[in-house]
């Protein structure tokens, strides 16, 4: 089993510099945030004029359009578009199966988490990290500021194999947390012993906008094995003797295609992004493929 990912590998200046041109852009962010770069649903004392509304007792007189009052004899407020932050919640899968093979999928998952954290913190958004395995934990509560980034790397460095996968339980717990609506980035292979149907049902419980980052390898679709084998589940330890023939491989490929179709279908219906992240390839170019002209609209 692979060793934890070193902070130096996560907080690498060249790695972070390669992300500077990427921006997460929300159509609208929910009210109640702090000043940042995202367009808010709220109208108030921002920068870009949006509308008028009649004055109500208690309104700020500084927002009154006195020129309009002189012309019409009625009191109206000028409303401007507010700029606020987009909460970004990172959910890397650190279950035991993600630490198998070399390099482990967990390494790609944590580097992807660090990449999204750097992008969001660089544009004044708040970021939280919620790794999961058998259950979900709050590793970094939502916070903002570029100076927070080294702390993100130090905390993620401590992560290791977290036990068996229970993606459904983890997502249900996350979905029940009293967090401001934002963008939830779930980074996983999405393999769960309960099947893809349970995964999809759990994803439905997440009220936030979703971006799914599926950590894959070519061998997922085509394992390239044949003959008499004894397989061991790396999380439960359960063993199973199988005979792999050409027909068995075809049935496996068909099952994997159904798995992929179910995940992609959910993402399409939910209007969520879905990125296939190859664990054997550099992370940043793959993440950058999401960003058309340097922007990803959540």
Give a written overview of the molecule:
- The protein has 10 helices and 13 strands.
- The protein is elongated.
- The two termini are 35 Å apart.
- Strand 8, helix 7 and strand 9 form a beta-alpha-beta unit.
- The chain has a 6-stranded mixed beta sheet with strand order 7-6-5-8-9-12, with helices on both faces. The chain has a 3-stranded antiparallel beta sheet with strand order 2-4-3, with helices on one face. A two-stranded parallel sheet has the order 1-13.
- It has helices at 7-10, 13-17, 66-72, 105-122, 149-157, 167-175, 196-204, 218-221, 246-270, 283-288; strands spanning 23-25, 35-44, 48-54, 76-84, 88-92, 127-129, 140-143, 183-188, 209-216, 227-232, 239-244, 273-278, 295-297.
- It has 2 domains: 7-26 and 86-297, von Willebrand factor, type A domain (Rossmann fold, 3-Layer(aba) Sandwich), CATH 3.40.50.410; 35-84, no CATH class.
- Residues 27-47 have low confidence and may be disordered.
- The chain is an alpha/beta fold.
- It is 32% helix and 26% strand.
